[in-house]
Structures are given as structure tokens and as C-alpha cells.
Amino acid sequence: MGDDRGTSGGGIGAVLRAPVSGRTWREFGYLMTGLPLSTVYFAAAVTGVSLGAGLLVTFLGIPVLAGVLAMCRGFGQVERVRARALLRSGTADPAPVRAAKGGALGAMGAMLKSGSAWRHVLYSVIHFPWAVFGFCVALVFWTYGWSFLLYPLWHWVFPTFTGQPGLQLIQDDGYSFYLDSPAEIAVTSLTGLALTLLTPWLFRALTAVDRVLVDGLLGPSRLAGRVTELESDRGVVADTAAADLRRIERDLHDGAQARLAALAMDLGLAKEKLGEDPQAAARMVDEAHGEVKIALRELRDLARGIHPAVLTDRGLDAALSSVAARCAVPVRVAVDLPRRPAAAIEGIAYFTVSELLQNISKHAGARSASVEVWKSGERLMVQVTDDGRGGASTTAGTGTGLAGLTERLDAVDGVLVVDSPSGDGTTVTAELPWRV
Questions:
Q1: What structural domains does the chain harbor?
Q2: Each residue of 265-298: pLDDT tens digit?
């Protein structure tokens, strides 16, 4: 039995290797084991649901239905394991059924209200006819394909043990047709070869339907998946906010706070010297005045890094023009928006452009850059382009900050796409929802 590499490439080689690849044999095993298992699932689910529904006129119907739902969830676990082992499926387990109240009644109520449990029942019912179809088609094509392909090796069985010249195809009113001549044996083998080469791709199509059924009915619901995604995004947002707070604290401590502390000491010394040496005190006050200007500039830069006032007052066009003016290379800014997006999205767009322009100033070695912002449907599009050395990447550890931007955009269902061929500039496109 071959491995999966036989079907990973293209061309004639992949087609010829497909019948003996590991993937083909696993899919054949999946289709063959599906029928007996589905027969059990179907019979148990239909019988149990019918019995439970019939007993609903009494209290007994509730525990019976809850038990059937729990049983079908067990069937689903078997099917997920089978799909992972034979189809290499990545279907995750659904969330466990948790009762809001304790006790047997609470557990039964939670099971009866579980949409996941009812989807497992639906799978147990509808998979049975598909399993019958898949089993029959796979077995017929696989058996006839290999039998015909290898017919030159075993056609001697007929004259030796049955007295017939070969495999009989037609028997009608004394007329019989046997596959016994060399030409007929060769045609039979070629037919088997065609069937054998076709069968792996037939298996792919059959198991593709199984993948859809397993993913759609036995995996987590879209709502549960969305909740998990939002929980993950919430963690990213919290981590980003904490990192921003640490950065602000560090900037205040190392910058404006330290400068103001030194300023206070200088003014104290100037006050002491005011009576003894007025000229020295005046020089110290003049130096302190310069320090005050520097501290104010640092505080303005820090406030701009938190949320610039120009963004709140005048929107993205003015704010991006302001940040572009501070870039080390000339930047052309074009903003074409019919109205302002949500404030949170506007802020993310601003800081995305600001981070990208900082990257251009520090790393790109560019001569010019451009920033374009427009609305496409219900999405805000931001594109930053430079003519630098390229080679930027969103992978962690590159020092470009693109990985952090990707996480920040992902937290609001945004997308960051980087096109940065080495030596040919960089184009970064950010796509954000118009509203959150």
C-alpha cells in the first residue's frame, strides 16, 4: 500500500499512483465500514425517537428521548474518530451539554434543548441511505476494476475448475459469450485499468459528501464556533490594551515624568540662587523653560499615540495627512469616503497606517510611499504602498510589527494582506468592517 504522496502532485504519475495510495485505501475503508455502523445508528435512532415520542403522553417519554439523544452523541463521537483516522478530518468536538440546574431533570432538560444533540440524531437518520449508496458504488467499482485488471492472471480458473473457456458474459437461448481470446482478455484488462484509475477519484467525491455531513452535523455549530472566535479575539484585544497601557506607563515614566522631575529640581535650585546670584538663577529658569517645551512636546506626542485629537475632530483624511507629514519619506494620501466609519474602526485604521508608515521610515529603505483609503460595500479598505526593499512578513519575530497588526485587525473581523516581493516594494492592504 502506498502513501499519500502519490496523489499530492499533478500529472499522469499522480493518476497512476492513486489506486495504491494510502488515501485511497483509507477512503475505501471508510466507505466499507460506514454501512454496518450507519445501520446500527439508523435503527437505534429511529426506534428510540419513535418510542420516546410515543411515550410523551406519559413522563417516560422524556427520559427515553434524553437517553436517545445522549446515545446519538456517542455515535457522533465514533464517527468523528473514524473521520479523523480515515479521512484526516479536522472536525472538532461539539461543546458538552451542560445543565443550568443540577439533578437528573436538569440534565434531561439540557439534553432535550441541545441543538447539537438533535443534529446528531439527524445525522444518524440521513447518513444511512447515503452509506448504502456509497458502500454499493465503492464496492462495485473497486471489485470490478481490480478483477478486470487482473483477469489475465486468473482467467485460467474457468477452464481448470468449471469447464468453461473463460468468464461468461452472455447466456441466452443457447448462445454464450465468453472472455477467452487474447484480444478479449486484453480489452477486459484495459477496461479494468480504466475503472481502477477512475475509482480513487470516485472515492474522493463520495467521501467529500461524508466530510460535509460530519462537519455540518457532528461538529460545533456556527454559533458556538463564532462564540469561541470572539472569546479568542477578546483575549487578543485585552492583551493589546494591556500592552498599550504598559507602553504609555513606560513612556510617561522614562520621558515626561523624568523630565518634569528634573525640571522641578532645577527650579528649586534656581529659587535658592535667586537672592545670591540672580544671573545664574535666570539662566537656570531659561533652561527650565526649554525643558518645559520639550516635556509638552513629548506629552503631545504621547496623547497623539493614544488617540489624536485631529482624528476625533476632523476624521481620517486630516489625521492621516498629519501622520504622513511626520514620515521620513514623502507620502501621498488619498481618502475617498462618503462618510465617517464607526469611531473604533476609524481608530484602528489610523493606528494601522501609523504603524505601517513607521515601518517604512525604519525598515523599508523607500524613496516614496502612498496611502489610499476607500469604502467597498460595507468594508473600509486601507492600502499602504512603498517602493522600498520589500521582504516584509506577517510572521512573528520579524520585528516589523505586522504580526501584531494582523491580530488587532482579526479581533474586529478585519484582514491584513501583505504583498512584499524581495527588492520590489511592499503593498499592505487592510480590510475592516465599516461598523462593529
A1: 4-220 (no CATH), 223-306 (1.20.5), 314-433 (3.30.565.10)
A2: 777 777 777 777 777 777 777 777 777 777 676 6
